[in-house]
Design brief:
Number of domains: 2
Number of strands: 4
Order of helices and strands: HHEEHHHHHEE
Strand content: 5-15%
Strand order of the largest sheet: 1-2
Largest sheet: 2 strands, antiparallel
Shape: flat
Number of helices: 7
Radius of gyration: 19 Å
Helix content: 40-55%
Length: 157
């Protein structure tokens, strides 16, 4: 994880926000700094996370916040399976299969789908963090209803 985030910062010069898939871990994990495993106590190798170390308290059930990556993986798995079902003869060894996976993830990402997922995340966050049944106005002055961390309506997913 350290090396992935280090490369991200080098390319974008931007702070990172790290989100675990398990809200119980997030409640106790220190998400302010990530250290190089080879230099665990050296600040020179530290990555500051979450925009200067701010921590977001996630609702108890926040699975939909990971939808951009879930949609990417779902799409890529479908494409890889389709290729394997129709041309399995081409992938007789692990190297050829690894090449297929690499090519799918590097050349065929569903960019439009990801952008739409990301645009909806702020409203989804508000719906999840607002107590269940409490109404509020979204950024477009439309009434939305909080779920208190439970499943949001399909409209927000």
């Amino acid at each position: 994880m350290y090396h992935i985030l280090k490369n991200w910062q080098a390319k974008t010069n931007d702070a990172c926000l790290l989100s675990f898939d398990n809200a119980k871990i997030q409640a106790t994990a220190d998400l302010t700094t990530l250290y190089d495993p080879l230099h665990p106590n050296d600040p020179e190798y530290a990555i500051q996370l979450a925009g200067l170390g701010k921590k977001l308290d996630l609702p108890a059930y926040s699975h939909d916040l990971n939808r951009p990556i879930e949609h990417i993986f779902g799409t890529m798995k479908h494409r890889i399976r389709e290729e394997l079902y129709t041309k399995s003869w081409k992938y007789k060894n692990a190297t050829k299969l690894q090449t297929l996976v690499w090519e799918q993830f590097h050349n065929n990402l569903p960019a439009t789908q990801v952008q739409e997922d990301i645009k909806g995340l702020p409203l989804l966050w508000d719906v999840l963090r607002t107590p269940a049944g409490v109404t509020f106005l979204d950024a477009n002055d439309k009434v939305a209803v909080g779920t208190g961390g439970d499943w949001p309506n399909a409209e927000y997913r």
